[in-house]
User: Fold these one by one.
Assistant:
Number 1:
Amino acid sequence: MKLNHIAAALSMSSFFCIPVFAQSVSGIVKNSAGQPVKNVKIAVGKSKQKVFTDENGRFELSNLSEGTFELHVTKSAYSHQNKTITVGQTDIMDLSLTLVSSSIEVIDVHATPLHSSNIESALPVNVIASDELRLKQASTLGETLKNEVGVHSSYYGPVSSSPIIRGLDGPRVLITQNGLDVGDASRVGPDHVVSSETATAQQIEVLRGPATLFYGSGAIGGVVNVVDNRVPNTLERSVNYMAKHNDVADENEVSVAADSYSGQLAFHVDAFWRDGNNYDIPGFAESVQAHDEHEEDHEEMHEGELDGHDDHEEEQGAKGILLNSAAKASGFTIGSSYILENGFVGFAYGQMSRTYGIPGHSHADEHEEHDEHEEQDEHAEESVEGDLTQDRIQLLSELNFDQSFINKVASKASYTDYQHQEIENGAVGTQFNNEMLEMRFDIHHKEYQGWKGAWTLHYKTSDFEAIGEEAFTPPSKTKSVALAWLEEKHFEQLLIQLGARIEKVELETQLTEEADIHSHESEALSHFSAEAFTPVSISAGVVWDYRAGYNLGISSSFSQRAPSATELFSNGPHIGTNTYELGAMYHVHGSGDDLHFDIGDSQVDLETAMNVDLTWRKFEGDLGFVISAFYNHIDDYYYQANTGEFSHAEHEEDEHEAHDEHEESVEEQGLPVYQYQQNDVKMYGLEAELVYQWGNGVSSTLFGDVIRAKLDDGSYLPRIPPMRIGGQLAYQGDSFGMQLSASHYFKQDKVAALETNTNGYTMVDANFNYYIDGIGDDLVIFAKANNITNEEARVHASFLKDVSPLPARGFELGIRGSF
């Protein structure tokens, strides 16, 4: 039934007219020294037609209809150029285009309805693509993006990490695939892996700051858009492949993506497979600080009964390995499109499965070092793991109309069937199911008095449920309908960007009215609760090209977000985070063994953010930089606060009867109770990246970012990433390239109540690429070394920082190429 709705919706935009083609445009592309530049891409703005310059810098575009077009001229290491041309009755000959060298890579952004590049946006944008993406690609999205300016990783072990944008994650950072919500449960808990795959992605885009105009209230903190070619939009033939191995987890990975066509039908297929064991770590999984806290608790509860536990090594478990961190994943996608003269219509089906351990739950009974496989066998009965499966259908179309006021309609729709199980000691503790249907129509109008713009109609439904004795969040159904309007206009050196969006969000949940927090047994019948919200977002931005190769971007926005069912009504032990979670709607009474809760009469408020962004860029010449400063004031911000209380749910006592005396003493304390609360928050920070080309293929990069997040009373928000600085020295030659990079994370001592400090650390990495000619279009043998100094490092933003350090020194060897 839902698929019929998708097909019917897309058919609304499937009408099109056939223009008459006759004219052609030819010319040459040179650099600032007057020399021809080869392999420059010349793309016609609203169509998918593109050509590349030859050895002499020449190009020719044929079969163009009459009208006005924008040519997009791009090449790596050169500044992006747009050229507007008007095609009439005669051909345009000898068009001359000049590209200026650029130290900042200029890449088109797909995440916004209106065409722009990463240097043409009032908001700062990170884009990684091509070789840079292959170099940074890791097994999770968070680890792939963790070194981007303004972006950190939640690091829920190396197997489940999500991006944190300017200190915000979870339901405030939307993860999309080709502009549509991935539809998983990664926004519900940090232990849930993002279902989008980076191995087969073409590029990944990060919109820092509120992107609610494009995607709604779930993007109040930013958007990560994974772009792939699962729905092909051009007629091309290519094959891309990669195989690699790393020794830090004894992990193997293979991926392949292929495109072809027959007549006007384009085809795409991709697949990946990854399998790894437990990760090596430099030392013990449990930090000394956490171990000492456990020792103190143990001594207090068993004073006079201890017979000597002085050796930290014995108490901190197995050395050199992160238990329960093995993972395997696989998936495939098939897609096809019909390429029209004025666009395309296509679909794709994708399937993915992941099984991964969740660190921090295994207990070492043998206080000695073991090899990797022995540890897996000995602790299999004490494991907690996630098992994810997802089926996803996407339908995309783009149609252009040159002779009408509505000159482009881009339609997107997806249906996602997602299941995630949390398995404890072989038994399913919680199962998360989510069915999501999303439809989006971007309707572009013809330029009017210099204004270009689009209206967006956006519809999304989510049927989410958590099943099981340890289900901490109630079943919920969420439906949103939105209308947005975006406009932009060039005033000589100024680009004005305006937008507004209004949504209607309906949330229905089934919840327990009153219960005993220790037994987790209901004392009253469950009932349904329905909430309705109307978030509004308004944004205004200016990009000022005040000098050739420089610009200044200023953006101001007012954004609102509707809370999720988890933030309002969560209630139960979350085995993935080792916490007991309570929603903001519950009132907690008593303390200790007399701790109870019930549904209160708290007012449900929208989060309201007022954000200002200032971005300064230099993108031409040997020196380039991007410097951004932001200030964000959020009223009624939802966050998880440690209440200082502990639960003693009955299931915990049964599960751990076999633990040794030390472990029993820890379990007696129970799970810490974290409750969602609301407060006004101020967040501000600075981000900077500077690149210099020294010549002869040598370049260097410096970067840094810092975030501060405070409640109204002056206290700090929990789990905010620390200040960071880093640098990179790179060489790129004809036959090989290499990079040496270092990042220093400062000590984080600006912490919330009941939150511990995290020590600083420095990570040093290196990579080497060797290019082989004559085998396909390109063939690269690559090698990487990570954490060269074998530093013990813990991520402050992670719930598992005290039991899950970053991986030890590791080496990676692989091959990639295309033909």
Number 2:
Amino acid sequence: MSTDSTNTTIAPKFRRRALWALGVSCGALLTAAPVFAQTAPAPAKPADNDVVVVTGFRGSLQTAISAKKKEDMIVDVIKSEDIAQFPDLNLAESIQRIPGVAIDRDGGEGRSITVRGLNSDFSRVRLNGLEAQATTGGKDSSGGANRGRGFDFNVFASDLFNSITIRKSLSAEIEEGSLGATVDLQTARPFDYKGFTMAASAQGSYNDLSKTDGGRGSFLISNRWADGKLGALFSVAYGHNTVQEEGPNTTRWENAYSPSNIGRFAGYYDSSNVFHPIAQCTGTGGACNTTETNTANPALTGDAATISRALHPRIPRYSRFVTDQTRLGMTGSFQMRPNPDTLISLDAMYAEFTANRDEYDLEAISFSRAGAGMPKTTIRNYAIDSEGTMYKGTFDNVDIRAEHRYDALKTTFKQVNLGWDQNLGEKLKMKVLLGASDSFQGNPEQTTFDWDSYNVQGYSYDFTDSRHPVFNYGTSPTGCTVDQACYWSFSPNTPANSTSTPGTNNLTTSTTTGDASLIRLRPQSVDNKFFTAKIDFIYELNDSLVFKAGTSKKQYDFLSTEYGRVTYVPASGLPGRDESASTLYSAGINALLNGDIAKYSQSISLAGNTFLTPNLDLIRSTTDFTCGCKNAYGTFTLDNTNSSSRANNRTATEKDTSSYVQVDFHHDVFNMPVRGNLGVRIVKTDETSTGLIGKGTTNVLTTINRSYTDTLPALNVSIQPLNNLYVRFAAAKTMARPTLQSLTPGGSITTSSQTLSVGNPYLNPVRANTADLSIEWYMDKESLFSASLFQKDIKSYIQSTATYVPFGDLGFDSSLLSGTSPAQDNSTLYLVTQPINTPGGTLKGYELSMQKPFTFLPGFLKHFGGIVNYTHVESNIKYVTASTSNATTHTVTYTYRTAPLLNLSPESWNTTLYYEDSRFSARVSVAHRSEYESIILPGSGADFQGKNGTTNVDTQATWKLNKNFTLVFEGLNLTDQYDDRNDQYNTPQGNTGQNLLLDYSHPGRTYYFGARYKY
């Protein structure tokens, strides 16, 4: 796991300089692969009598309109020139131009999509016809590692694909698993082109926040032989850049007036500088929140109650993330048509997305601590607003931390598939598709070190301007400031004269003033594998009816791992994850670092504060703390069964067997062409999930099997009442399976209190009845106006909550109850905290879309054109926001709140204004997404975490030097849009803040310049 510090500091700079040189020196020789749409043959069966002439960006829009018009379903299409000409770094940013699609960003780039208000877990992605999964890691505030079903589109560059189709309605022949949409991604194939084709591009880049350069490039070569019967294609895309994000963060807000938060404040000074202590609340349940009935510790009143009930930032801090990103993708395709009735296609794809991230934080950690023995912060002055938020204050005896975290992140994606299309006579056709994919997301190093300063005097924060808070880090007891080594220490949190024996837990009680410094080692990974085999038969009964039938078998394997630095605690016999710089494990490293804090530090400037933070490259090269071993500097061994890591060590296998029948019809009714399809799909799902359940002194490996069957009818009808007017209607029963992470039974059981916290292998899918109505007016071959209505009756939702369940109903082995006294059995009621199916709700909305070239205008204005779409969605879901259990009556009382679906933005729109003549082309694209809630019950008493609205502006301009060479300029995130996330409260203490700062960071603007070449 060790990392060569030379490589991490010099190699990225070398790559950036090399890419920049490549962009400048090859600029006159290269062009982008996605312009291949210019050489693609016209469709064999156009939907109308117009001749499709593909010329540049407008030509690609025309081709996409033609493809949409021919569909029986409600779909949206982007063709290759369309993808290339949008100023996008990756697929997510290309897809957001489609009506109803909004994206979420991480590291300044699009990562995941939401379709019509349904997040990425409710959408399926097919790559070259087969379902696939690609996942990456991210910042904690934006979701961290992806262990769900959502597809992370930032793994892939847009240049690798020549079409994207978003299927918003379903037919029986389309595999199940989607409530939002089925996204079809298609890479280029040699039969897409008439003959020999070669193209390439190179661009250099510059980011105005990180002050770094980078670049990207692509290359494609394709040819056909043997009179066009054989063809081969290869393409590659590479990009590298450094992304810097920075801004304030609170890691949530919370109040001190509850049993779990006792002891946050020792007391306060009044206006006369008289100190008033604040007694700790010893009540249970909600007693501390209302009235304290314990006469030995009466309820807090007056200023003490006001202070304790107010929300304060849990860990107020300023953060910087520096991510070194590299994206590599390659595709290969071989096609063979030995005779007119046979087509064989072999496709392969490989992608790597590397994002090595350094995180620097300067923070006050005292506000996050509670319990006996912890230091008590005192308040010098404070201000509390009408929402019950202590937005401003000055404090003494505050512990400050300078933290450096490093994540080595790499996603490797591989896919290969074989297709065989065969005519079995004049009327019968057969299609066979076999394939497999593997997406491995590795995080082999996740390391955190920090310096600490205890009992700092005069610390203050001021959130008067909530998104631009002001922090002052005071002085240490030695009179030093954050930019001096004497301010900091690397504390083991043990007495200097303590003695200990490795492998035991005989440390004496701490005499230091706060938490130990961190040595957090937390490597982890997620592996998603798919194997699919499917066969379809198509029989053309006559010109009006086509019968289809098919069957498929799919296996999805999920493996999640996490490791932690361990210590075995004799009292329980269970390993626990150790993150402290204790003498027991790291006497050598403590002596080394405290011996010369200045040497092992680096200086960082954030929001006007310059401070010292650990230099992980130097510490790693000196101590080899990633060795997974014991050496002279400490014990750095890891395991994956310790109490903190085992929850993310889970496996699951899902086997889906499905069959369908469908009839496609095409007939005139009252002189109006009517076409569509009607069918039904039956699918059986078999699940096997495994996880570790911690019980007493052991970890019990638990495996549970489960099966269920769904019958899913679907109808699509398209009516053409006028020549260029289409009215489409679709209805279907749909389902989206739970994430495999939530299905696995890992967790912990406490038999003495009869409590269990686990996943839920018996979760049902989220099922829904859907209906769509769309009107499309094709004014001419380049113009489209469409309006769509949609409604989804969601039968259930999934949320984690607590309820009493007989142990036997949980499906766990009864051996977990062995040794209980009094004896327990399958009828014993357990308070189980796990994901469950909750009542769903209705989602409804509408979309409006328009695209048209302004050819009706005079002069040069006729070269302009526009694309605009708008989506409105609303939904109501009944969420459990709190629960109170009664162990005597075995009842649970719930508090509910009705709110929109998580990740649903009520409004989204995007627009592109373009200009294109024979040589010059330019466009500006704007994408907007309104606010939404992202997490329910995120902790610290909050109801929701959410994200405020975003508006991203991007641009691109090209100058065609001749038929082969084109110069390109792109500007991304021109408004430097902030990622603005918030906490939302509605608590008994009177905390009602709905837009409290959680995270507010920005990535800067990125500019690209280079050239394209096409032959």
Number 3:
Amino acid sequence: MTSTFRTCLLASTMLVAGIATPAFAQDSVPASDAQTDASEIVVTGTRIARPDLELASPVTVIGEKELQFRQPGTADDILRTLPGVRPNIGAGVNNGSDGSSTVDLRGIGPQRTLVLLDGRRQVPYGLDGLTDTNNVPLALLQRIEVLTGGASSTYGADAVAGVVNFITRRDFSGIDLSTSYRISERGDTARFKADLVVGGNFAEGRGNVVFSVGYTKADPLLHLDRKISEVPISSTNGQFLGATTAQVTVFGSPTNAALGIGASTLGAVVNPSTGLLQPATAADTYNTNIGTYFQTPLDRINAYSAARYEITEGVEFYGTAQFNRNQIATQLASSGTFGNTYQLALNNPYLPSGIRDQLCTARSISAANCAAAAAVQGGPGTAGYIEVPVVAQRRFTEYGPRLNVFESQMFQIQGGFRGEIVAGLKYDISAQYGETTQNQTRGNWGSFSKVQQALRAYRTPTGQIRCVDTANNCVPLNLFGPNGSITQDQLAFIDLDAIINRKVTQTVVTGSVSGDLFASPLATNKIAFAVGGEYRKLTAASQPDGPSQIQGEVLGTGARTPPDVGRYSVKEIFGELIAPLIEDKPFIHKLTVEAGIRYSDYTTTGPSTTWKAGGSWEPTAGIKFRGSYQVAVRSPNIQELYQSPVQGLGNLTVDPCQGAVSGGLAQLCIATGAPANTIGSIPAPTSGQINNTTSGNRELDVERAKTWTIGGAFAPAAIKGFSLTVDYFNIRVRDAITQPAQADILNGCYSSTLNPNFANNAFCALIGRNPLTGSLNGAGETPGVILSYSNLGVIETAGVEVGLNQAIRLDDIGVKDSGTVTIGFNGTRLSYYHFQATPNAINRDCTSYYSAGGCTNPRARYRMNGRLTYGRELFDISLLWTHISRVSLEPFLATRLPGNVAQPGGPNPSTILEAFRTIPAFNYFDLAARVSPTKNLDFNLTVNNLFDKKPPLVGAGVGGTAFNSGNTFPTIYDPIGRAYTISARLRF
């Protein structure tokens, strides 16, 4: 048990007075979940403690029953399937994961969605300020409320798209023990989960303490375990897409032409039998899906404690303590030399003599000098010594996969006082502090400098093979033998396990007063208000070890990982007002208006103001029309401000400069860094990926958003158990903090449609090619496509949400003692999503599209959930339907759409196999059943993907690197297949 864990457990047991949450109120909470004690009500969207008041913003509620049917392992298992959520980083992301699970409401970016626990902020996971939903204590959840349309005036700047509020059970008393086990029909992806909740009241009900502890372990799913992902498939031709970094060495430089051998887009491969270089073929390439994950593993321990105690009338103390330890791992294909340039000594004892002669010919070294260099017994400075620059690519398959282990620990404590000053006037003041620490360990990656050291080797007169530089017990490296020829001693020398430590801290102090003012002359209920202030301080730092900070030193990363540090604080004041204007008058059962304002002063961006206005009209009981308008202002997070330049990877199937190019395009290729002698032989992107360089911008200012919703809620008394909600949402973010899309830059430079004169323009200035091969791959010296943050973006989205519920008691229709049938439906129609990164970039329409450089993972127009349930007191059976509408590859040809929206910019469809240009509509069905043999014991069975529907095959180059994995999109389409979850729950 770690010292941090012990500290948190000790803190939780010492909380002799209350830990609870602010007193909020909300009409969207189902009646079965409502609580009568205003001090215990937690509602999303307001700080006003009045349960009788109604809000204008739409809220989707996922209740406890739904949670039981789903049997999720983590909160992400539920959130990513919701119609209003675009799946983001989670278990389905391997290459690109940082070990967290995040939420993206409306698809406008996870940094614009605020995640709360009982109305309180959680300490962020990383420098981007995002909350890791793996930290949510599922065992204590009563419901999840998702408020859309913006909530910045209530909660702060990062609630532009809305809020996801996880609400725990209050005043829990007793013991609740639950355990579950999931297994796929193919016998893999096992997941075990166990939770214990213990709570009780004391001091004659004046206090309550609850404690929960849980453990979750989920096994990974490997790409090799599913047929669709056994090998990477080219999206251009449907054939095997291996890496040119093979298990036998492939030379990308010198080129085949320089070597005087046949042409090949893959380079020249070492033939271990002949000891010569020959044109490489697909058979020489490496399966980069070996060892990689479809679904990442999770090992999680969580503990949560909450308590409250009424010290005296009008004064209640409350507090919480929370601890989580998460370990998530990702795996990539074996490390190697990749596209690095090495100096290869001609006297290297493992270099076949035939290849030595070919290299000398390519480098115009005479046969006499070549032979003399081969016999040199020494290194640089020795007479006759010669070394040549090469891109000699070899996978270290003997190593096994590259490991990335993210182990994070999060703890947070809070405490406060609340109560009633006088009748109808309440106060709430609290403080919280949280920390997240993260250790990222890269295993089996290797050291660039040690590979270089091991390549400078020679044979002694006695026949021994030794390094020129014997430091650190150097072992010469055999880079030119077949698979298995690299020994464990050689691997041990070049081995490097890099470590990156990150730490985030958050302090929040907040206080508010809420109460009643007076009643409108035409209403009975009083106008309610809340005013308050908040102080937040956030610090974040990333500290890599020494090797990680050296450009290209950690093999497979391509670039250094610099240390980053940043901090900011903000002082805020806020106010809210909800005013019942008219009640119980002809044609007006209720007419209510609401308003809110928040003034913020950031140490980074200075002062800003966000506000909201809205209202609702009920002409008669059960019929309500509502609308809201909000102006939100978001200040940049620490990553957006302070991130140092760092290289990553982006998907690209065809490099505009590869193969035979001429004229103006060829000149642009040279202008962007390709050596003139590489034109005509620039290779295709390695493994369908190119370098991207990203960096922060300390000059960033706030972004501004306008959001509005309009709709209605209908629950007429004449139709028992029926409710219908329909809401239209519209969000526009200007001065958006964005990065240009990769496709914007490449097409803006190289496309004859967008740059007909092939001018060396501003887009071309953001491209840097490999100075040796001319490609967009390579370590260190190859920035690739440069993506930096700016305030030049515009994001626009709009759509319609529909929710419908109908409960039918069969007794009411004459079927005695036959239980209840319920129907639930939630759906979202995306009217449009537009994104323009800069005024010079394309105004991209991603509605119903996916692409490698612009729209990334699919953004379906229609997403729906429907549930049909038959239930009795001791038995339930339920069927869940999930629908994802048809999506297509983003169009390429430039056309103008209504509203002056340009629609070009994706990969040219002619380069993508026709079968991969469209994904048809998908429908999934999940079956759940509950049996309660006794009042205190439940057994549950959930069958996910009931009909074992396979994910769509689209190849490895049609979406963003993080999301287009295993030749499909595993965050959206299920790669596991039919799976069974069984659970038992005991309460007493």
